[in-house]
Amino acid sequence: MWHALLTLIHKELRALLSSPQSRRLLIMPVLLQLLLFPFAATLEVKNSTLAIYNQDGGAASVELSQRLAAAQAFPHLLNLHSEARLREVIDRQQALLAIRIPPDFSRRLARGETPRLQAVIDGRRSNSAQIAFGYAQQIVAQYARELSPAPPPAQLQLRHLYNPNLEYRWFVLPSLVAIITTIGCLIVTALSLAREREEGTFDQLLVTPLTPGYIMAGKAVPGMLVAALQGSVISAAAVWLYQVPFGGGIALLYLAMLCYGLALSGCGLLISSVCANQQQAFLGVFGFMAPAIILSGYMAPVENMPWPLRALSAADPLSHFIVVVKGLFLKGYGAAEAWPHLWPLLLIAAATLSLAYLIFRHRSGQ
Length: 366
Known about the structure:
Elements: H1 2-18, H2 20-40, E1 49-54, H3 59-69, E2 76-80, H4 83-91, E3 97-101, H5 105-110, E4 118-121, H6 126-147, H7 168-199, H8 202-206, H9 212-241, H10 250-274, H11 278-295, H12 307-314, H13 317-331, H14 335-364
Parallel strand pairs: 1-2, 1-3
Antiparallel strand pairs: 3-4
Helix pairs in contact: 1-9, 2-7, 7-9, 7-10, 7-11, 7-13, 9-10, 10-11, 10-13, 10-14, 13-14
């Protein structure tokens, strides 16, 4: 029985690697996302345009304008001379943020009063605009502190834990380990049974000495191996190429990959067991991936979601694996910290594999 199982695994790997299209499908996403995501998938505001409408012209307003223009987030500056032009640059998306300095800015500062500035942001790009506004607010606050003769009664000291310099790659690359392994494992397992049906070899598979459980194991193992290999490549590149710290244990990382691979294999085999061909399986994979990524906390914190979506997120294997991988990279997770997210993966694996097994037996007539 074990020899037949190993033969089936070898057959799956050979079918997977013999096709140039399959090889490209496994290799290209890893290379493209490894090269693009660390640079393109960022919420940092860079290369943005700042517009300044200085109605004052005094020394204080000129100095503030120069400080805003010197910010690294705003390498492009537009000096405006009318209210209509201010509205125009925002309407045409020529500037992400516009600062309006009132005519009495310098005079009110000289009298010891607090002048008001107006910031106009492009709400169509709300996230980037809010971040840009935060940068401008920090510059204005620092300028105000320098002008104030008395120190503030209290000062808040900011300290960033786990990512002192707020390097966005430290956030992206650990998450990329989870996303890449998800794509690879799901595609391999979801196409396995569908490919047998499409090629007409499904009945031949049923007459082998293997039981349905062994058949499903033979279909699941190649996907888990692919996921482990892809996850290893991304992890190594994150550490050695992009200098992302890894504070956890290698063995715990591969244990988490094993638990996650089991959960993904269950989802992939569940998709494959209900699909008649590979095209349907592909659609099923991407139908699963979109909500899985949204609910995982990669794009938005799970805590910000309504409670029904938070409940669905608990059933999303990607949400648990992302927490573990980030914890291993940035927080130095041990087994005690990782276990609260590993046992849900095992529970999801047990549920999805059992359901896929029952559907497979029903559809195969065994």
